[in-house]
Automatic annotation (TrEMBL):
It is found in: Membrane. One of its GO terms (cellular component) is plasma membrane. It is a multi-pass membrane protein. Keywords: Amino-acid biosynthesis, Cell inner membrane, Cell membrane, Cysteine biosynthesis, Membrane, Sulfate transport, Transmembrane, Transmembrane helix, Transport. Its main location: membrane. GO terms for molecular function: high-affinity sulfate:proton symporter activity. Pfam families: EI24 (PF07264). This is Cysteine biosynthesis protein CysZ. It comes from the Bacteria. It comes from Vibrio nereis. GO terms for biological process: cysteine biosynthetic process; sulfate assimilation. The chain crosses the membrane at residues 5-23, 69-102.
Amino acid sequence: IKLKYYLPKAIGLFILLWIPAIGQPIGPVLWFLFSAWMLSIPYADYLFDNHKVPFPTMRDALKVKRGKSLSFGSLVMVCTMPPILNLFVMPVAVCGATAMWVDQYRD
């Protein structure tokens, strides 16, 4: 289900990058936002799966608070870019997703 959600959007953004006047200025920004969104999904997925919440319901819950999900995903993405820091970011991101779930999505 997650791959069916990811692939069409990723392919569409990839095609957008090849459009000369539109793809170069807009494509990287959209790709960054899409990557941040897609990073917030797997980190939140562990917690939603533990509580038997199906993927479409989880996706809808993350969409309701899209700003928090995008800020979490973009922060994780930026922190995983430096070579040594990325080794420590993954466990911290799991803790951050847990804190985000407890604070925002538990209900």
